[in-house]
Amino acid sequence: MKVVTISLFVFLLVIAATVISFCDGNSNVLCIESEGQALLKFKQDLIDQSNRLSSWVEGEDCCEWVGVFCNNLTGHVKELHLGLLSRGPDADEPVAEWDAYLRSKLGGKINPSLIELKHISFLDLSNNDFGSLTIPEFIGSMKSLTYLNLSLANFQGEIPHNIGNLSKLLYLDLGHNPLFETKTLQWVSGLSSLHYLDLSEVDLRQATDWLQSTQKLPSLVELHLSRCSLNNDPSPVSVNYTSLAVLDLSRNTLSSVPTWIFSLRSLVSIDLRSNGVEGVIPNGFQNMSSLKFLDLSRNAFSSSTLSWLSNLNRLQFLGLSSAGLQGNFSSAIGNLSSLTHLDVSHNQLEIIEPKCLESLCTMREMDLSNNGIDQEVSEIIESLSRCSLDRLESLNIASNKLSGHLPDQLGQFKNLAYLFLSRNSISGPIPSSIGKLSSLKVLDVSYNRLNATLPQSLGQLGNLEDLDVSYNVLEGNISETHFSNLTRLKFFWASNNLLTFKPNPSWIPPFHCKSIGLGNWHLGPQFPQWLQFQKNLSFLDISCAEISGVIPTWFWNLSTQFECLNLSHNQLGGEISYLLMSSMVDLRSNQFTGPLPQASSDLEYLFLTNNLISGSLSNFLCNSQTKLETLSILDIESNLLSGAIPDCWKILGSLQVLNLGNNDLTGTIPISLGCMVHIELLNLRNNNLFGEVPSSLQHLNVTLILDLSENQLTGSIPAWIGDKLSKLVVLNLRSNNFQGYIPDQICTLNSLQVLDLGYNNISGAIPKCFSNLSAMATKPSDQHLSYWAFELDFDNLFYLGALLVTRGREDEYSTTLRLVTSIDLSVNSLTGEIPKELGNLMGLRSLNLSKNLQTGKIPENIGNMEVLESLDLSINRLHGEIPSSFSNLNFLNHFNLSYNNLTGQIPLGTQLQSFDRSSYIGNHLCGPPVTKNCSGNGETPDFTNGGSSGGKKRSKVNWLYVSIVLGFVMGFWGVVAPLFFIRSWRFAYYQKLEQIGDKLYVFWATIALHVIYRKEIKLC
């Protein structure tokens, strides 16, 4: 929306008065020769890459030169227009056009010869690049200047104070040169005629006199001090801005709204966004009856900030986005009957009172996006339709919690051009009345729960340029009628629905789109013939569309203009022999055969996973005619590639992801792989590589994922992995032939979340320093989770994860890889006890030490790893009992302690009893779930129903105890009793014992004397 303010009108009058006498452009007299020479000297010191000043030729009339304007009567140079229109890169334009724009910026030095232009009143050097030069002092001597614009020109240093001598100056813009710094603005007070002042991004932290100096300018209409690091409110008793209409103090660090603002009754526009102001909005605004534009967005105003707005009946623009508003939408909004623009986006609003919207009869633009509004979408639309039906042009309620169905009243907003309802929970069909919105240009209802099918009335929206219905549950058949009148359609996004579109093969679409997204539609089995008429396509997604066969030749002729091409997850086959002129190509999960195609030098992302591509990598990577200098992602996993990995990686300096896993590559890992210093993911898993890991890989110091698993690599695990690859998140060396010990340097990898060294020949003890792996030692609630999502130039995100073995099975993790923490050291020859320090890894989710030679007891504190989901200690030599703390492992879903020497009772706990007996087999454990119970003889008596079951079952008799008692009784009465009662037996018994005692005494005494005698002989 274009907001016309008083300030703009005043500024136009100023410019018109300045240039009215020489806007003809055709001078009646030749320029002054001395002034032409001065301009040529000025040109000599400039750097003009694009040759903008090619018309500046000696001997030619300087009044005809580009950017030079002369007085029609005198021939004197009056204006010098060498500024560029400020702009940013356009996603729709070719990169070459943006590069050409950047080259058109002038640079170099500013020659003092400009002083010789005694009659110049207009000087514009804005939006160039003068390489951090300071503003020349001589500019302060050009007394005839009324217009000076040096903004966005990359100047730095102190502002020359003699600019304050330019008493005729009406317009001064030095803004957006971020390296400026100044300690005072006292020099500004000399610009008595100034109407416009812009010092945005000038560092004014030390210039505490900025308010006192600028208020002395009696004619000042606009003051722009955005991003000036202002953090205080000078708060003078009074200010004297008699003409000020526009005040911009945005993007500073003001702690409160300056109180002096409320005395400026002539203000039309106030911009205080992005200051971090807290508390309640001051009531002083209610007396500013001339205010038409107010932006308080991106602050931290409290929930009661809207009550004062009821008196601003003439307010035309209000921006409160990100102001920290909470709670209900204040009813005071309803009193703003003249409000034309309302922006309360990026806040914490929870409900919009319908009555507050019914009186906004002049409303043209409303933005309620990015809040937490939780109500029926129909309440908002129906309330707006009662008053602003004929004026509303833009409605944005995206990214809220809206539910319910879209009402038929939506089709009554005749002037509605922009409708954003994305990222809510809106359900039901799109009403057919939407076809009545003849002014509609943008319709975005993506990421909702809309069902049914697209209404055919959409085809009547002749002005529609952007249609986004992606990520819903729309279904049904689409016909040519749906597109009958969409002649201006440029962006059509409808992926991730269940729609079917199979038009007549001869159908010619009425539109020429730049972007088409029909992923997950039913388009096949034939390749869509109507695409050949789309001559402007830069993005195409027809993935998962059930298309089969060979891609037609005419399609590859279109590919020269693609930025992004996604044909993945179809049944397309044949060879890819044509040049891939796109920056992003996704052909994953098809049936393409033959060798890798020759690629364009502009290629950035290539996905060919899960195809039948064969041959070697050499022709693709090492072709001297094609330099893949811009290639960032190369994903060719799960194909039939063979031969050695070529040694030409030095030319791929931009590569960030290299995935060659699951092929048939042989040979050693080439040394030049270490030249890819920007690589973040290196996957060479499941090939036939052999030899040692080259030390050159230690230069990959930004790598997040290193997967060399399932090869035939030998040697020891390099210690430099811990020393140099400090950012590693995943280290997978599984299923190789590595030997030796686990180096302690691994413990320094603070970001490591996955360590898999399983199925090797590693020996020695598990390092105790594993407790230093801080990414595994922190609970998930506090864990800093690494994130590696490669965002391309479209809405989809391509995640490249890792194939990991956890919970006893192999799974691929991509978007959830950031949540995985795992250590797998299984099937090695590790010895010694399990370090108790492992129990400090409180964030670990999977631990596998099975099939090693571990001894000792299971550390008690292993049971303190509360988020552990998988624990496998099977087939070791562990003994002792299962720690009782294991009953605290409430998240276990895979558990195996089989084939050890564990004893005792299995701790009682819901999780431990829920596992199968096989988790405990091969031990000496008792208690459920194993069959062996924990009584003395291995069986527990059954005392059910008082020792019987239905009168038939009796308790078992323990005959061992019975035989002991009977033996005692028989021995007592058979031996002791006769000695007690028969005297002759008793005397004979004791006499015999005495004889036996004498013999034993003589025997042991003889032996003792013999021993003593032998020791005495040795001593002699």
UniProtKB/TrEMBL annotation:
Pfam families reported for this sequence: LRR_1 (PF00560), LRR_14 (PF23598), LRR_6 (PF13516), LRR_8 (PF13855), LRRNT_2 (PF08263)
Domain Disease resistance R13L4/SHOC-2-like LRR: start-end pairs: 352-547
UniProt signal peptide: 1-25
Topology in the lipid bilayer: Single-pass type I membrane protein
Keyword annotations: Cell membrane, Glycoprotein, Leucine-rich repeat, Membrane, Receptor, Repeat, Signal, Transmembrane, Transmembrane helix
Chain ranges of the Leucine-rich repeat-containing N-terminal plant-type domain: 33-71
SUPFAM superfamilies found in the cross-reference section: L domain-like, RNI-like
Transmembrane stretches, start-end: 959-982
GO cellular component: plasma membrane
Compartmental location: Cell membrane
Family: Belongs to the RLP family.
PANTHER family: LRR RECEPTOR-LIKE KINASE, LRR RECEPTOR-LIKE SERINE_THREONINE-PROTEIN KINASE FLS2
The protein's name: LRR receptor-like serine/threonine-protein kinase FLS2
Species for this entry: Durio zibethinus (Durian)
